[in-house]
Amino acid sequence: MRNSSLFRTAVLKAHREAAVERGDLFFGTHQLHRDLHPSSCLPPRRPPFPPSLRLPAPLNHRATLNAQGLGTVSGLYGETVVVPCNEGAPPPEGLMFIKWKYERDDGTSGDLLVKQAHTQEATVQAESDYAERVAIAANSSLLISGASLADGRVFTCMMVSTSNLLEYPVTVEIYKRPSALEIIDKAKMLDRGKAAVIGTCVGKDAHPAAELTWTRNGKPLIADGKAVVISSSVKTEPATGLSTTFSTLQYTATKQDADAAFACSAAHPLGAQVSAPEVFPIHYPTENLSLQVLSMGPIEEGDNVTLKCQADGNPPPVSFNFHLKGVQVPVVGSNTYTLAGITRDAAGEYKCSLADNSSIEDEQAIEVNYLDLSLSPTGKVLKKIGDKLNVTMEKNTSGHAKVSWTKDGKAAKAPAFERLTYADAGVYVCEVATGELKRSLNFQLVVEGVPEITSLTKQRADSHKVLTCEALGVPEPSFQWSVNGTEVESSYANAKATHRIRVEPAANLTVTCSVSNKLGEDARTITVSSLIKEKTQEKGVGDEDDDQSKLIVGVVVGLLVAAALVGIIYWIYMKKRQGTWNTNEKEVGTSEESKKLEETTNNHSIP
Length: 607
Known about the structure:
The chain has 4 helices and 41 strands. By secondary structure, the protein is of the alpha+beta class. A hairpin with a 2-residue loop joins strand 32 (402-407) and strand 33. The radius of gyration is 66 Å and the shape is elongated.
């Protein structure tokens, strides 16, 4: 008790000294008594002692009074503001109670609440609207719900312990960002070169007031007093203290502003905002026309061609005069005119002009592509083999033409037929192209002829024989055999017909193959031997072949012996004549010996 009494005495002394220093002659003990005794109902008379005051205390008691520096807390309008006590630091040792106060508008101090150290609940002492809006947090922070601009004041946290009395004043600042920006009183259109008010940008209910800036295509507009004039004002709502900023833009438009997006942005401590962009129609007269020919590609004879007269004015004009090769055609309510089924004679210069100003015009040349093609013959053509066929093609085009031929889908030369063959038959296509324009005609050539057998053959198999008959002819010929047989194969392609049968002859036969179509017929025969006789002869042929081999060997041996004998006689004769030459004697012989020698030689010569 003695320590508490000494502490209160020291505080009272400090209050009095501070009052004397600031010239407050009426300072009494009521305020200090009320601060130190929260249960007291004495009304406050003067503000608390200065926050910077720090009092020395007797060394044996160490009682001090500390007021900390002023802190700042920001809060949002309409939200709950948290005001920390001593920045949320733990309370000092020996804490007796915590008390929150606030500074009234007239500068006096008002109580809010007090919380004893040994209790969980705080006692609300406020008599104003704070009574329903204040509370204390577990860390001794003051909670102010439903913040308004009136809460922008100083709140003081006082901690009283057995050894100290500490005060922590905090300044609360309340902020509110403006509502969504909008542009009101917007212009419906702008005339080129004329100053006009585009609209007024409104940044409503903010604190502090928002600073508004106009932008064009995202870039800030700088007021120059001529083309750009910006006037701003701020209005404060008395009931809430919130501010509304108005910014009006007067602008002189050009043609380049036709697609420009205008917007306004707000600068505020709680962040920037941008309004929705606005595009304003720019009105200006037509200065130039452009005549366009609407076509997907090169114009071909027979196409529908649309002419479009495009003006650069805004709003665009809707009345024009189209000049169709010297003939003026007025068009109202549209900027197009269609030439239906254009012909080659319609090629030339076309113009369009404004209905109310013929000096503003444009022209365009139209080129019509055409291609005429004729072919003789066409369709299906029937000819006889060996006939002559004349093919003629004529073309008439608007430009250089390329001619190509195909036969049965393959590239071919231009057909010329002096003497038709079966190989000339097929489908011929003539195609002519000039630019992207193409025409084609065709004919199908069919070459007919009386069937003619080109081959009749036989081939032996193990137990039968195969007869093959081949013929040329169109239409396809039919086959007839003079014997009964089993058909093996039948085919027809490119005027060539093939027919095969299988027979088993028991005796020698003469077989006839006959072919025919609507134009005529042909026949050919072949000899077919009996299978039984051929088998018997095969064995005899084997013995006969052995005898013939022996005879050939004997003849060869006899010829070799005869040749050797002639050689020996000739050698002896030559030896005798050599002996006569050596003795310089003339060989004597009779004519009879000479004859005998010749006869002998002739008798042994090879026949």
